[in-house]
Structures are given as C-alpha cells and as structure tokens.
Amino acid sequence: MPGVHLRSLRGRAGRRPPSAPLLARASLHRMQMPTPDLSSSRLDPLGRFHLAALRRAGAAFADLVASFEPVHAALVAAAAVRASAELAMIEPRVLVRFAEREVELELRALRSAAEALDRGRGGEIASAIFPAGIAAEVTPRAAAQSAAARRVLQRLTAFGAAEPLRAEHLPRLTNAVASLDAALAARATAAQAFGQAYANELATRDDFCRAYDVSASVIRQRFPRDREQQDLFFDTVRAPRRGRDEDDDAGDRPPPAAG
Questions:
Q1: Would the pLDDT of 181 be above 60?
Q2: How far is CA 234 from the centre of its chain?
C-alpha cells in the first residue's frame, strides 16, 4: 500500500495489521512540500501549523522558530497589502465607467444639437463634427474614448458653421473628457500599486517555500528514519475533503443509521 511502511503492515507475530481507516489516516500525514503556486491563503495555515508544532516541541526548536517566523510574517503582511491594493482598484474602476458614460452622453447631446442646427440628419455641421457617425465616437472605451472625444472637440472648434454650438457644448464636453482622463489616471495608479503588491507577494511565497523546505530538512536530520515524528511538524498541503477533519479517526465513528 502506497505511503505505508511494510513493517507497519506486517506488525509483530500474532498481531493484526492496522485497520483500513487507520492506514488511510497514516497516509494522510506524510510530509508534503508546498510550492509557490499555492495561494497565500493556503500557505499561511501551513506556516501557522508548523510554528505551533515547533513551539509545542519545546526550546530545542527555538532556532527553527526564530528563522521561520519572520518569513511567515512577511508572507502574511504581503498578502494583506495585496488584498488591500486589490480592493483599492474598485473605486477607480467605477469612476472610469461613470466618466465614460458621461462622455458618451455629451457626445450624443452634441450630435443632437448639430442635427437640430442642420434642421435634419445628414447635414453639413453634424457630418463635419461626426464624419464617421456617432457610433464611431461612443464605441471606444477608456483611453480610446478620451482620444475620440478630443478629436470631436478639435472638429467642433475648427468648423466655422459649428460656432453656435460651442458656447454650450465645448465646455461640457471638455469637462467630461477631463473627468475621464482623471479617472483613467487614478485607475492606472491603483493598478500599478496592485501589480507591485502582487509581485511582492509572489516573492514572499518563494521565500516561504524555501524556508519551509529548509525547516523540513532540519526536522529530518533531527529525527532520522522516524517519519511519524517528522510528520508531527507539518500539516497536509492538500485541502481536506468536505466534512472531514484529517486528524479524526474515521474508524472510531459509529456507522450511519440504516434507512
């Protein structure tokens, strides 16, 4: 049976081998090394378990506590900073969406005003300001939306017959574009902060896994050929099955009631 020593299966003369549930329990507690691709939310409990075990083992393991604890703390702190930075992106994203909508509304209002001045669709003024139609100006998003609106502003300013529209629509559209640009800048700043925080978190994951592996090597050296003692210091990497605690002995549970 994988994960169980043959000696434990044979037992001593006259003794029965362990029951299947006990063997399953033994296999669950084999030392597993985490990798940096695991999320910090999974690495953190592994670190807490390991530190609790080292402290429980006594002063002889104070050196391992001293070396591993700062690495674990750095992981927890970096994950918290990344989570905060991720939440901080929400408001700038909302601002961008509302600012985009405001630019779109101002462009449509300008188009309607130009058509009214033309006394109908397809007139000279509307065609000069919106040569590709309104859809070409309101479909872009983010920085492309800002650039499209600025081109509309240039045409509104340059076309002489559009002069009656400028007093009202030039400042309105200009202000809407400025609000969009400010929202885009805020979103970019938040995204940059998140990217840096996430990179730092990934670095602490690497550090954590290296420190965990070093600690495991020391444990193996201190308890050579004593896998059960080694395994006391490390939790399982994989998540337990729903509704089951890996430290429970399923063999001690009463069978389910019939029917």
A1: yes
A2: 26
